Amino acid sequence: MTSTSTTVESVLALLRSAPHGDFQLEQLGREARALPVGELVYLVETRPSTEAAVLFRVLDKERALTVFEALPAPHQAELISALRTPQVADLIGDLDPDDRASLFDELPAAVAERLMHGLDADERAMTTAVLGYPRHAIGRYMSPEVLTLSPAMSVREALAHVRAHAVGPETIYLLPVVDGSRGLLGVVGLRRLLVADEQSLVGEIAHPAVHAVATDDRELVARRFSAAKLLAMPIVDGEDRLVGILTVDDAVGILAEEDHEDTARTGGAEPLPRSYLSTPILRVVRSRIVWLLVLAVSAILTVQVLEVFEDKLDQVVILALFIPLLTGTGGNTGNQAATTVTRALAVGEVRVRDLPRVVWRELRVGMVLGVVLGALGFLVAGLVYGVAIGTVMSLTLLSICTMAAIVGGLMPLVAKKVGADPAVFSNPFISTFCDATGLIIYFTIATAVLGL
Questions:
Q1: How many Å apart are CA 331 and CA 322, to the nearest integer?
Q2: Which residues share a beta bridge with 217?
Q3: 118 CB contacts (<8 Å, ≥6 apart)?
Q4: In a domain, 384, yes or no
Q5: 387 and 316 in a common domain
Q6: Predicted TM-score (pTM) of this structure
Q7: Under 8 Å between Cβ of 128 and 117
Q8: Domain span at residue 403?
Q9: In a domain, 147, yes or no
Q10: Are residues 315 and 231 in the same domain?
Q11: 280 preceded by cis ω (within 30°)?
């Protein structure tokens, strides 16, 4: 670990030194070769584009490709713009068609077109096929290079076929079985093929395939892929003809990207397109400022509610002391419910048609939470400020927790119903809504109990 850290510091020092002479580049190459791939990916991701390009140039082809494939598509595009060397053509040609399509999405059209013309005819055709699907369709993430089997093959013939064509396809662990028009008949796992009787026919040992249509939403397919614990999934067109295969690394990448997006939006920000340390300051600000402005405007509701009940606060000043506690409790309760339901939606545990069940469930959860917190509030506030204030606190906590839990469970389902991102409707908006509504509940109960 110490040796690696020392080498990283040496590489950083060489990258920062300018201009780079031949001796320094040679030394940089030696130091870079001593680093693990993970450290190289980190350095390329987090350094300015000029330094990242210099580091990338001193890597050998195999290691450069490994590092390049590990980078997110926006960072790959920036690196290509900084390189502008024949090395770029080699990198593009060695990428899988689905990864190449993601990269081309991030490049200027003229650059993408020039790189596309540099591909051979087969690679260009496969890349064009992937690019033909909508941005969030699973077809954009499949590999069109698929090793297929015929149901009439014997196991011996199938194994020979796999050995002869194992180099090109992205995976050979799951082998689709197709008819003469590429209609998907089933799949055979490589292990099943290896242990089967060599005289058996592939059609006899094949089993039905868990598959998806190329135009299906990528997140839904990736969630289904993960739930079924697959290594690969055939992708078909609208007529059940095989057009590609989705591999586990692509499914994991989709889920990671979706989770990153949901996490950012749940916290009231837009996801960053690249690593945090290499994102320009103004881009980070832009990802946050919109939501802060929206929340600031919506928070005016809370101020207006306080203004309406200003005379009540003048009569019983002690009520002001509990406002942060009540608004915080309501916001946290709503956020907990929203986060739970949003995740349940994402993994398919809950659907829009389950809305009544979710509301009924969150009603009960909210009431139980309210009873527990209300009892504690009555005990503490009652001992310090009297029974009347304790009663106000206990009833308010019961009401706020119930209301916030219902709203928190309801919002993601409403968002899903109208076609919006459930994460956007979650924590920031729920906190603001619960703040304003909670204050109305608080002062209404206080007015009734205290006779204000």
A1: 14
A2: 137
A3: 89, 92, 93
A4: yes
A5: yes
A6: 0.67
A7: no
A8: 299-450
A9: no
A10: no
A11: no
- Mean pLDDT is highest, among 1-5, 273-277, 382-386, for 382-386
Number of domains in the chain: 3
Per DSSP, what are the bridge partners of residue 232?
247
Using the 3D structure, point to which of 133, 165, 185 is the last residue of a domain: 133
- Specify if 193 maps to a domain: yes
Q: What b/e string do you get for 236-272 counting C-beta neighbours within 10 Å, with b at 16 or more?
A: beeeeebbbbbbbebbebbbebbeebbebbbebbbeb
The secondary structure element, H or E, covering residue 174 is strand 174-178
The encoded tokens of residue 25 equal 């580049």
Which of 116, 118, 186 is closest to 151 using CA atoms? 186
> Quick one: DSSP state of residue 138?
G
CA dist 44 and 55 (Å) reads 7
Give the pLDDT confidence of 101-144 residue by residue, as tens digits.
Answer: 777 776 666 666 666 766 777 777 777 777 788 888 999 899 88
Tell me the two tokens of residue 134.
């909508």
The reply to whether 231 and 165 lie within a common domain is: yes
Contacts of 150 (CB under 8 A, 6+ apart): 177, 178, 179, 202
Any domain includes 211 = yes
What's the token pair of residue 225? 């892929």
